[in-house]
Structures are given as C-alpha cells and as structure tokens.
Amino acid sequence: MMLRINPAWTSTWELVFTAVYALEATVKVLSRGFCVGRFSFLRDPWNWLDVMAIITGFLSELLDFGDKASVVRTIPRVLKIITVIPGLKTTVGALGQSVKGLAAVLALALPGLSVMALAAMLLFQGDLRHKCVIHWTNVDNVIGAGISFQETVSNSEHYYFLPGHLDALVCGNRSDSGMCPEGFVCLKAGNNPNYGFTSYDSFGWSLLSVTRMMSSYWEQLLQLTARATGRGHLSFFVLLLFPGCFLLVSLLVAVWAWLCSEREEAGARALRQREEEFTRVLEAIKRSEEEEQAACRAALSPEAGGGNTESVEAPSSRPACRWSCCGCWRQLRRLPSSFTASGFFDLGVVICLIVNIVFMAAEHFPMTEHFEQTLYQAHLVFTFIFTVEMLLRLVAMDPYEYFQVGWNIFDSILVAVGLLVLSVAGSLRWFLVMRVFRLARWWPSFHMFMKLIWTSVSALRNLTLVLLIMVFLFSVVGMQLFQQDYESHVCRISADCQLPRWHFSGFVPSFLIVTRVLFGDGIEILWDCMEVSNLTVSLIFFTVVLVIGNLLVLNLFLSLLLSSFSTDCLVDPEEESNVRTAFRQICGALGASVGKSSHVNPDHPDNKEVPSKIDDHGALTSASWWAPTADAEKTSEDDEEKEKKRPPAFPEDRPADPEDRPADPEDRPADPEDRPADPEDRPADPEDCCSDKCYQCCPFQDVDKSHGRGRVWSNFRRACLSIVQHECFEIIIIVIIVLSSAALVFEDVHLQHRQVLKMVLARADQVFTCLFLMEMILKWFAFGLKKYFSDSWSWIDFLILQVSVVSLAADAFGFSGMGAFQLLRTFRALGLLRVISRIQSLRVVVQTLVRTVPSMLDFLLVVLALWLVFSITGVNLFAGRFHYCFNETSEEMFSSDDVNNKTQCLELHYGNYPEVSWKKPKLHYDNVLSGFLTLLRLGASSDSLDIMYSAVDATLLEFQPVYEAKTYMYLYFIGFFITSFFTFNFFIRVIIEQLHRDQSAGKNIYRTKEQQKYYKSVQRRLRMQHTPVAPPQNCLLARLVALVTGRPFRAFMVVVICLNLVTLMVETDQQSLEKETVLWWLFFAFIFIFVLEFLLKVVALRQHYFTDGWNLLDLLVLVCSFLGIVLEKYFVMPYFLPGYFIVLRVVHVFRLLYWAKAIRKLLNALMMSLPVLFNISLLLFILMCSSSLFGMFNFAYVKRLHSIDDVFNFETFCSSMTCLLMIGTSASWDSFLIPVTGSPPDCDPDAENPGAAIRGNCGSPVVAYVFFVTHIFLTLLLVVHLYIVVVLETFESEDAEPLSDDHFEMFLKTWKKFDPDASQFIQCSELSDFCAALPDPLRGPNPVILAHMEPPPLPGDRIHCSDVLQALVTQMLGDSGKMNSLKATMEEEFMANPSKTSCEAISSPMQGDEEMAVQSVDNGGGSALQ
Q1: Opening angle at CA 498, ends 190 and 934, nearest 5
Q2: pTM score of the predicted model
C-alpha cells in the first residue's frame, strides 16, 4: 500500500533526478546544437521527452497541482526508458507506422459501431430500467400505510434483489421476457444496472454497451437485454451485433497481420543488406590480410618460426576440464560411453520419467499415511535413478562436454533440487514437476514448441520490453489518478466501506488491474472507477489501456506467429532417433514373434502397404454423397505418390478429393458437379454385395447374373442403384432429415401438457424411422454391404438409425423409462449431422477440418503435458486449501475470526447449527483430474475469478480462507495465462500450416468447384470499371445527369446523411415533448430530401438507376422508412418489426464508404470470403442445433441455479439454443456447468416434475463434462477457422479496382508540372522523367520498357498526354477487357486536341529517333557532296 503522505526525502530525490535530466539535455544541446541543423537537439522527437520531463519536474516542485498532476511528470520519465535501451526506438517507430495502416479499418469500424449503437438505442431505449417492484397492495404489509405509488416505485428497498447481486432483478412485460416472483410487478423505475452505466438510453451509452461485445463480460449485457425485451430480440445480437463485431475484429486482425508481415519482410531485407555489406567488408579485410601475409612471407625466410606458433597455440586450445589425460580413465569411460549412447538407455530414461510423472500425478487430498509413504519412497527411488543417470553421462562425456548440452544442465539442476528436497527444503517439491519438460528432449512436437517459444521470444525481446514498459506506465498512471478517489469514496461501491479486490490503491493492485485489462477483461473495474472518480477520466484511461495494450498484445501474438513460420529445423534428428530406434527394434521383435502365428496373407495386395500410414479418419473425407467409399486421406508426399501409382481397383484406394478422382466413370463417384449428363456413362452393374471372404465362406451367395434368379436380382439392384443415384433422391432425404430434426424441437418440457402434439410426434417418429430404414435398405441393395459399410458417413446413418429403432422398440415393450434407454434417445439429436454428408459445401469444410486432426492430436498432447505441469503444481500448492465453512441458511461464508479451521466448523455442525457445513467449491485442486477441470475453466472461460480468489485466500491445510492472505499466488495464474497465450499461438500455427499443405497439394479448401467459379467471377467483376451512363440527347436531361453524377451533389448528400445520423444520435430516453416534435419533423425533412434525390436520379438515369447496388440500397431504406412510419402509426404487425424497419434508416451511413478506396479493398476481401464464411457458418449452425437438442433432452429439468433461470435454461429448444450460444463463445459457461453437474445435497434426485415421467432436478456430471468440452472445442475450432478465412482472404486479395478517378487526377497533376501551358504535349526526352515522377501504380518503367510501350510521338518530337496514359495503362493491365471499360473514362478526361488530329504520328519513339538520325546523315552527306 502506497503512503498517502510522501516523506520529505522523495522531494529531494525528485530534484536530483530533474537536475540529472537537465544536465543530460544541456550536454546534448552543447554537442548537437539546439534547433539549427539536421541533427540538432529539437530535431529529434525523442528529445522532446527530456524537455517535458525537465519542465514538468521543476513546475511540480514550484507549484502544487495536486496528486493527479503528477501523471504529467511520470509519463515522459517512464517513456525515457525507450530512448536508453538500444533498438526500442526502432520498434516503437515501426509500431507507429503500422498504426497508420489501420486508418481504413478504423474508418470502417466507426460507422459500423455507430450503426450498431444506433440500432440498439432505437430498439432497447429505456428497457433496462424495468425492475421487479413490490406490488403496491402489499406495501402496507411491509412498511405500513400512507405510502404513495411514486414513493414505492422510487424506493430501492421495494425492489427485488437476487442473493449476492447489487442490482435489482431486471424484467419485462412480454411473454418471452423475464418474469417477477409472486408479489412483485415489472415497472420502469430507478436507474439502469451497474451504477447506471449499462444502458441504451442515449447514443453514448449505447456505443459503450455495443463496444462491450468485442471485449469482456458481454454475456451479462445479453442476459439483461433478453430479460428486459424477450428472447425474440436476441435475433438482433445474432444477426447484427455478433457478425458485425466479428467482421470488424477479423478485419483488424487481418490488416494488422498484413502490416506485421510487411514489417517482418522489411526487417529481413534490411538484415540481408547489412549481411551483404558485412560480407563484403570481411572479404575486403581478408584480402588485405592475405596481401599483408604474402608480403611478410616474401620478406622473411621460409624457416622463420613456423613450428613455434603451433607449439604455443596448441595447448591454449585444449579445454581445461577434459578428463582424458589418464589412459586408465579412458578405458573406464568406454563402458558408460557405449551404454549411454545406446537408444535403450534413453528409452529407459523416458520410461522412468513417465512412471515418475504418474506417481506425481497420483497425489491427492486426502491421502492415507501409507499412500503418502509410498509416494515418498517412489520419490527416493526416482531421485536415485536420475542421479545415477547424471553421473553416468558425466563420466561418459566428461564435465566439459556434459555441460555443453543445455538438456544436461537442466537435468543436473533437477537432480540438485531433488537432493535438496530430500535433505532440507521439502517445500520445493512442487519444482520437481519440471521433470515433465525433460520429455521434450525425445518428444519432437514438445521440443519444437519449447524451442519455438525460446527463439521467438528472444527474437521479439524489444517488442516484449515495449509491452512491459507500457504495463508499468499504465500501472503507475492508474495509481496516481485513482488512488485518492478510491480511498475517499470507497463507500459508494462497498457496503462495508472496505476496498474491493480490484482497486488502484497501490502499485501491485494497479499492476494486476492493467494485466487483467490486457487479457480482455475488467469492465466491472471500469464501473467502480467511474463511480468513485471522474467519469471522463476513467473512460479515457481505460480506453487508452485497452486500445494500446491490446494492439501491443496482438502485435506480439502475430509477430510470434509469423516468426514461427520462418523457424527451420526445430527438432534435432539425432536426439529423437535414439528412442525411436530402440522402440522400433522392440516393436520389430514383438512383431516377428507375433507374426509367426498370424493368419494374414503377406502376398495380399492390401497388406503390402503399411497400415499405419492410412489415417483412421480417412473415410470422413469421402466426397461422394451417393456412393459411400472408404477413402483414405494421405498426409505425406510419399503416400500421395504411392496412391497415384496404385490402380484404383478397390473402393478404399480411390482418392477422396474431387479433383483427384479418376476419369473412368466406374471408378468415379457420381458427385453432383462431376456426374456425367449421359446415363450411359454411369456404372452399368453394381458392385458385389459382400466381400470376397464372404463368398469364399458361403459359395451359394455367388449366383450367375446372366439368367434366372441371378438376372432378376441383378436387374433389381440396377433399379435400386438408379433410384439412389437420382438427383432428387438425396434432396428428398435432406428434406426428411430436416423435418425429423424439426419434429424433435417440439419434444420439450411442455410436450407432456400437449397430448395431441405428443401423439402426432410419436407417429411422425415412426414414419421417419421407416423412411430412413427404407433408404438404408435401398442403399444396401444398390451398393452392397461391403461398399455401404466402408464409408464413415454411412456408419453414422446406420448408428443413428439404430438409435431410433431401439427407441421405438423400447417404447413398444415398455422399457422407455429406463435410464439407459432415456440416454440412448438423446442421441437422436445427432440426426441433423447426416445433412453434412449430403451437402457438398459442408462436406468440403469437414474434409478440411479432418485433415488437421493428426496435427491437432499431436498439439493436444503437448497442451495436456503443459496442463499436467500446472495441475500437479496446483495440487501441491492448493490441495485441501480451498475448503471453507459455510452457512446454508444465510448463504454466507464465515470469516476466519469466527471459524478458523475445519474442527471448529464441524463442532458447530454437530452442535446446535446443522445448517453449518464444511464445503469445497465445485472446481478445486484436490487431485490432478479436478485440476484439469479447473484449468479448463481458466483457459476456456472469461469468468474464472472465483478460482483465483480461492487461491489467493487459501492459507493452511483445512483452515478457513483469509481475505487476500497470499496475493503472490496471482503469479501462478499469470503464468498459466501466458502459457495459454503461447499454446493458442501454436494452435493457430498448426492449422495454418496444414491449410498451406493442402493448398499446395491442390486440394479444395473450404470451397466447392461452383464456389470457386463464383470466387473467380467476383474477382473479375470487382476489377471491372464502372461504365458511366451515356449522356442523353436532351439538353435538360444531360444537365440533370451531370448534376446527379457530379461531386457537388454527392458531397451534399454526404452532408445530409451525416445530419440524419446526428438527429438520430441526439435522441434519449424520456426526452421532452418539444425535442421529440422537432426530431420528428426533421425526420420528415430528411425523408423529403431522400425522396427528391430518388426522383432526380430516376428521371436522370432512367433504367440505369437500378443497375447500381448503392442506388438499390437507398431505395430499400426509403421504402422501409415509409413502412416503419405506417407500422408505428397503426401497429398492424408484431411489436418488434416496426423497430427493425426504423433501424434501417441508419444504413445510409454506408454510402460514405463508397469513396474510400482502402475500405473498398477490405469490403472486397469480405465479399471474396463470403462463400467460405457461409459454409463454415452453416456447419456451425448445424452443430448448434444438434447440441441444443442434446442439451434439451438431457438438462431440461435441472434445478434453476446461477445462470439457469426462467429465460436461460434447457427447457425448450430456443432457450437451449441461447444457452449454447453463450457456452460456445466461452462466456461464463461455468455458471451453466454447475447446475447441470449438480448432485445431492445441492439438488433433489426425487423431485417431481409435473406432467413428466422424469424425476429429480439433478444433472449428470459425466454427460455434462463431455458435452460441454466437446461443444466448446468444436465451436472454438470453427470460429478460429472463420477468423483464419478472413485473414487469408485479406492477404491474398488483389486490388479489385486497379485504376480509379484518383489515379487520373494524380496523372493530371503530374502532367501539369511538365506542361504548365496546358498544351497537352511534352517532349519525348521528358518522358522518362515524367514516368518516374508518377505515383504508384502508374509509376513508369525504365527506358527499355518504354521502347516497347510505343506511345506514338508526333512531329516536333512531341507526345500527347492521352497516348502516354493509354500506354501506361496497357503496360499495367495488359490487353484485356479492362482496357475497353477504361476507354470511355479516358475520353471524358482528355478531350481530343485538334493539333494532334492534323498530325501524323510516328510509329514509335525509337522509330522517331532513327528517322532523325537518318535525316541528319542525309543532310551531312548532301553537304559533303556539295
């Protein structure tokens, strides 16, 4: 805690430091000059920090500006660190240049956020003020008579508060909104939630609320809005806020990644230039030394001192620590040298490490004395083994060679710590968990991860130092700004007037707050800070910390990612070959012994390939939606070459990718885009029904198909094959799948009260099951059992169908109430996943995802190893220390002064207070498995503060927690978050590398062939220039066209649009009647202007008006504005539709984006990625629907606790979808996990659910954990791919508009410099200088290329401006269709010169020079003859 009254010596030191800074500045001024000259003192911007530090230092001593004014003195002093450390100024300068590149994104983000904020304000203005207020008829029973209605509403004591909440319960008056408990009514009263800072009442607060959607704690905003306005308005979040925020964030990441890559390339180029210069200097020095040595040799005799030098230098090159002087010792070293060099020795060490890790992971709480003694003895044994290993390696390698290897140094440190733990320091036992990192020596992926972190961090040390300096600066500034306010006004935010956990009263708490904000959290701290301090200062400080801090973190993340791609050979092949060689020898010996009894035919062609090279997931990459095949994805180039050489004789040998299929119709699946139009090209005969072994075992199955029953059977199978191959067959099956899944939506908790609907759904289930059974039988007959069951998608269809069949059988026999059959029925929710195999776009996405599975599994093992380290460390630090004494009646925890330990708590429990119990939280570190669950919540949830609070408050074993007893335990969680930062970076790297390999192999990534064609057509369309409207013959219409297409008219409409936005922004909740009337008439005035614009453009442009997308958008907004007026006037449609039509008024702002080229490029990149985004989003939607059905079937009757209430629950499909939306984004999913994993005594397993056969309101922990982890991982994977798609499209996007009006203006401005008289001509000799003066992309080439451009010069050695422009454009665009679209624009820009048309052009500049030379020769020859 920082002292409020600074001691006297601080002012003395302030004067000393200020004097030192003044002396430094004086020396710089005397040496470099003050302001005159290029390298003078003031010409360097960094020296202004010295000036500011000196001025603020002396002013703060002379004048008293208060405590907050010390910030002005602190900032320049801290930033001076950047000028001291070498390389930091360059890094900061590069970051500043990169920020300039974000101008386009910021220009797009500002109107985008404004539109979303205005839309939210128009929809939800004043809704969050609705609260549950006690009914006025019950007021007399509470506080007595004589209380008016207004006093009842305005008194906060009459509001309903949930336990542990500071804000009243928000409610709504709609059917799907939050309800109030009995005795309370929903009224609009009081302030908004969170001290009044969370609202949509004005544009500013709405903008702050919308910005929360891109940061932290947005789930609370979603919950409040849903409770106040109903679940129907969640469509606003799903359709506008979530996609809008995703696109803005993804574009920001993409542009910043592009800027980082450019900066990396520029740094690499500068490094290469320095290396080349250094190499040249070394070569020059070497040549000069060789010349000097040659001169010396020539001057001296050959016998002078040659051997003397070697005899003197040889002993100095020998290391002093080599033990090779004694021959006996060398003989003794041979045995341990050969033993430690063997692969079996390394394999034994690895096995010992794994067993040691298992013993460390076996520690738990509580442990018996015998088990604890066993672990101690195991620790002794392994310490002895690793000590012997170290001694053997030390003897075999001698100390010098031993300590030259980094892994040996690490091993020796661990051995020393192990011996120290055995002797005196038992508290360091947790450090032995670092033995897990020894596995990285023989684990290639783990080794690569660790070396990647080390090399990247060392390469980015300057950027890391800048981040640390800014964190320190923000911590000090926050402490100086808000420390006094927190201490003076703490009673505003705390009922007991005690400082909260997160405050600015000290450097350490301030540092923790800044660190938390950098991780994207801390909106609650902002509310507290605005409540106790100045609102504007708090907003500015947190905005600066959030923006600068997150940009630095994002820059570090992307730089780390980009630098990791340039790292080569991260794994030492010699280190990993020893263990693999030994393991391969053991497996070979075991395989040889087992192979003697094996019945596998080695001559069979399927056995000639190594089975391990065929991935188990390969069948999922099947591209056929009608003919299942057991495809195998090959991940290595050797496997692909083998597949090309092998004949596709078997279904499993056929390539999975549509582009790699054989041309033979019999071997190619009939994909919709590859199926031939001629029916004769299809397979004539179906394949054999069973495998060859079945025919060998049962020869009677092999019948003659040429006549008799065999022919009838063959014709029947051909008929079945023609049915399943028909285009409409799969469409019908897709419709049936969707209908069957839609029927499951109605099987919610209300179904028991709707008997007619229940009967209809039961019959529909039977019908759908029969239809799917018929489909399966048809495919059996058409493809055969062998081919059907060789495809993974067919297996999914088969298993889901079996679930439905077993469920119907259980209902028929009366076993549907059994737990096993109830659990089995829930898997019907996976039926919607069968759509994926029948839609090609989804199948391509799944194939891309499946190809990343092998790399992701390896990455997952690395993550599990890292989490194992933190889990074992957590068990050693916190096992048995999270427990606390709790009062069930008051729902409060005892303080340590009242109850100190478990013994005192149990005495109260067994005494007269049975409601007192000794409890532990749901997530703890009592064992390694619980530690993994705790780490999962830390890494995948945005709300994990209670775990950190428990760790910080933990004291001794089975003692009551003490408030912030060990604040240094925050370091454990900071270390875990930093590790998660690197693991997530490694995760992104793995995905991008796999995508690059797939793209290099020519495989489809995310897109189908039709979408690839769309991609290319959009590229061509975006590159095409907009053809101007031909002016009509009528003079008035021509002037009208010039008016509506001119820039003054556009500028006027821009001003009107901005004024319209301003009128929308000034609206507030509970505004005066006069203000509302003025805004209403202004709205009609803008409508009149937009109608007038529409009429003018329609009259002027005629049918061309409807060819421009922006004009169509204006028309849509105009029509919707009129519809909004009508609907608001007469209220003829549902309550929320008028608001949505009014929201469309703000879409006018996007017309401003048309004139920004950089923004157009970003929007073009988004358009190019729309097909891929649609594919992944559709797959994500199907996953969400299936997960929602599964959650509804399993957790519909759980007890309402934490986040599960009357709005957010699993009782219906819509509410389950809402919960899954929050869970999938890792937003406080633990508050949903706790109720669904509830067990007695927190729930009642025998509670009756009215109308339902299911009893109890407890959850299923196993099902819940598996379901939540699976859903979160799959959702995270798809969302990451969404971001990667936008980033890659932005990287690969080309300029969709190569030439625009801006380029022609730049051309004209440059031409005027060479043609000041506006004659439209310049001399041919000036052409090279003119082309060099042009800006990009018209900047001219060298004279050699100019000779091939051939802009024809005119007599007098002149050249016309239009000819130069046409030649430059032709050189840039080539002879393509783009030139035709530019001709009209060029003709408009440059009028034909009469002097040019009367002159005959020379074919080329070179030809003109040649003619002039010939003419000079002729003239010279003529004169000579004369």
Answers
A1: 90
A2: 0.76
